[in-house]
Amino acid sequence: MKWLVLLLGIAANSSASVLIKMAMMPPRKFPSLSEPLSALYNWPFWLGLILYGLAFVLYAAALAFLPLNVAHPILTSGAVACVALLSFIIFREPFYWTTALGIALVMAGVVLITAKVK
């Protein structure tokens, strides 16, 4: 259960980031002096904001079951890796071999940080 909560937190966080990116891309508009109410119709922004809130609640729930030095690195690095992959798939942003290596190194670092070896 604790790992499911953490995985859902990663999914909510990375989905929120993707939606906020979508909210800032044309044809959607964010508030400006010329169109201050345009944000009301920007559904990716509001859904992203809600998902960031959900990610925070799931993170807090995970902290009830997991130590902070385990939950935080897994959540943040998992979100970073997911966003890198989703930005490539959805937005066709570049994905270099260094990106893949960076994700692998971050994951290796998280394994080392959370390992229970004395």
TrEMBL record:
<keyword id="KW-0812">Transmembrane</keyword>
<feature type="transmembrane region" description="Helical">
    <location>
        <begin position="97"/>
        <end position="115"/>
    </location>
</feature>
<keyword id="KW-0472">Membrane</keyword>
<keyword id="KW-0813">Transport</keyword>
<feature type="transmembrane region" description="Helical">
    <location>
        <begin position="73"/>
        <end position="91"/>
    </location>
</feature>
<protein>
    <submittedName>
        <fullName>Multidrug efflux SMR transporter</fullName>
    </submittedName>
</protein>
<dbReference type="InterPro" id="IPR000390">
    <property type="entry name" value="Small_drug/metabolite_transptr"/>
</dbReference>
<dbReference type="InterPro" id="IPR018908">
    <property type="entry name" value="TMEM234"/>
</dbReference>
<dbReference type="InterPro" id="IPR037185">
    <property type="entry name" value="EmrE-like"/>
</dbReference>
<keyword id="KW-1003">Cell membrane</keyword>
<feature type="transmembrane region" description="Helical">
    <location>
        <begin position="40"/>
        <end position="66"/>
    </location>
</feature>
<dbReference type="Pfam" id="PF10639">
    <property type="entry name" value="TMEM234"/>
</dbReference>
<keyword id="KW-1133">Transmembrane helix</keyword>
